[in-house]
Design a protein that fits this description.
The protein contains 11 helices and 12 strands. The protein has helices at 18-30, 53-64, 66-69, 83-100, 141-150, 158-163, 171-180, 184-202, 252-264, 270-276, 339-347, and strands spanning 4-11, 31-38, 72-76, 108-112, 129-132, 211-221, 224-230, 239-240, 243-245, 277-283, 293-302, 317-324.
Length: 358
């Protein structure tokens, strides 16, 4: 087996299962130091991302054991919904981890397996060797989460649901899920999981997979940005940019102003909004919304340096507020879907390089 300075394994580990462990075992065989990149590291809890980066780090420790943990370094990485930017951040993070450990970063191998279109990241690291490991058939985190959350709707079904997961999950992960099921967050996420399942089921008879078009209004004034807290699932209670679905007889512009008015009661003259409009951007990453394929057109409006206009929550917004842009970075795990990254695009919240940057 060739030896490398370090082996890299990338995953979301939501939760950790035996296919992940097969990659980790190969990585430990190929290098003395292993860097595990935990994706979706700073997301709000959701049916797709129920566990924090710290919880997933603990899952890794429990499954790997103390001996190999001394050879393990963990790198949490946020989703940028921008593949080139994400790959640059991962590369820089791995190299920094190795420098901090006093290790060379010249011979690095990326260990992974091809699952589907989401495995395209394996080809995003020129200069790293690539070790492709055969994928374990029938082992996947989505099916595990579906079985786990689905059991919440049937009284007494959870123990048997966990017992049925003995093949895909190590014992430590099943015990973790059993204990986590007692937390209030489990019932809340299971309810949201059911809502999302019902939503997708309603479109299951479409002749083609549906693609939805939405609009979002990024409005800022005096160093503050206008945000709502969602009143309904998905993402109930999370921060979001005002917006919603485009209607049949509307342009994007008309939909954007209507959604802004309906959710925040910000009803400024259209001529003023046209003068305030600075730029638009399309956010179209396939994984940006758990409801399905959702493409949004975000418009940024600058109302100047004066006092922000009065607003009031309406429609499906539970609350609305002007928040200082400088106060947003610590709130990353309170945002719905990719809305934090939408704001990062416009305001540079994370300080990490944009695609093509240094």
């Amino acid at each position: 087996m060739p030896r490398y300075d370090a082996a890299v394994v990338i995953g979301r580990f939501q939760p950790l299962h035996h296919a992940h462990l097969s990659l980790l075992r190969r990585a430990f065989d190929m290098a003395e130091q292993v860097v595990v990149v935990i994706g979706s590291a700073f997301q709000a809890r959701s049916p797709r991302n129920p566990f924090s980066a710290a919880e997933r780090r603990e899952l890794l420790r429990l499954a790997i054991g103390d001996a190999d943990c001394t050879r393990l370094r963990v790198l949490p990485v946020r989703d940028h919904y921008d593949d080139e930017r994400w790959a640059g951040v991962v590369r820089q993070g791995v190299e920094q981890q190795l420098r901090q450990a006093g290790l060379a970063a010249q011979r690095i191998v990326l260990v992974g397996h091809h699952k589907d279109a989401t495995s395209g990241y394996l080809d995003s690291f020129p200069g790293w060797a690539l070790e492709r490991v055969p994928r374990l058939a029938g082992v996947g985190a989505t099916a595990v989460r579906d079985a786990w959350f689905g059991a919440a709707a049937v009284p007494g079904a959870l123990p048997s649901a966990l017992a049925a997961l003995v093949d895909p999950l190590p014992d430590s992960t099943r015990e973790f899920l059993r204990a986590w099921s007692a937390l209030p967050a489990y019932a809340e996420l299971a309810e949201e999981w059911q809502r999302l399942a019902d939503y997708r089921r309603a479109w299951s008879g479409s002749p083609y997979p549906p693609v939805f078009v939405t609009v979002d209004a990024v409005v800022h004034c005096g160093g503050q940005v206008l945000l709502i807290r969602r009143g309904q699932p998905p993402g109930r209670g999370l921060l979001a940019v005002p917006g919603g679905f485009i209607e049949q007889r509307e342009t994007l512009w008309q939909s954007c102003l209507r959604e802004l008015r309906e959710e925040t009661c910000l009803d400024l003259p259209e001529a003023l909004m046209r003068r305030a409009h600075r730029e638009s951007a399309v956010f179209d990453h396939p994984d940006r919304s758990q409801r399905g394929r959702m493409i949004t057109h975000a418009m940024r409006f600058d109302l100047g340096d004066g006092e922000p206009p009065a607003v009031q929550a309406a429609d499906d917004a539970a609350s609305v507020q002007w928040l200082p842009i400088a106060a947003l970075p610590p709130l990353e795990d309170q945002f719905h879907d990719d809305h934090f990254h939408m704001l990062d695009h416009f305001f540079g919240l994370t300080g990490e390089p944009l695609a093509g940057g240094a």
